[in-house]
Amino acid sequence: MKVVATSRTVQGSGASRRLRQSGKVPGIVYGAKKSPTNIEMDHNPLMLALKVESFHSSILDLEVDGKAEQVLLRDYQMHPFRPLVLHVDFQRIDANQKLQTKVPLHFKNQEISPAVKLSGGIVSHVLTDVLVSCLPKDLPEFIEVDLSGLAVGHSLHVRDLVVPAGVTLVLHAGENPTVVTASVPGGAAEESAAPEAAPAAEAKPAEKSEKKD
Question: Does the global pTM surpass 0.85?
Fold first, then answer.
């Protein structure tokens, strides 16, 4: 994905405010043992790009003043309540150096899993991304999670994930966070176990017939 920016020399909160008022977003590019470069970008194209999942986890081709370099989106700041990007950070990528970044999880076959198809259970997604380490060329856009074997009462953990060649999961010793769980909807078991109460028949008192003379 290509991103276009221009370098900027004016800094400070006042200069950044004027940039935003003119439809621009201040930012910075750093890393790869080079001096940081202050940049500015058009707001609307950046706002649209931020809505694309791959923009957050893929290697981007950032063109600054006509010169392209590979970067990763590292951070961005939004206005507290307006749809306005306040600042954006990119990190330069060295093709020979491993990087660490979060990669989104894509879940498949949930609807045919025993938990859903046989038990009518609910699958809860605890994690939506994981931290990985790899060379830039091996960075996946996402990691697929196959739920076709998931049953009620069971869960999948990060160490159960199948990652592409060249990619390793970044975990501390003994760490194995839950990715998904499967459970029966609350109250379903109690309702199914409770016997159906027969409706009580209202006893109708017998009417005495009046004897005629």
Answer: no
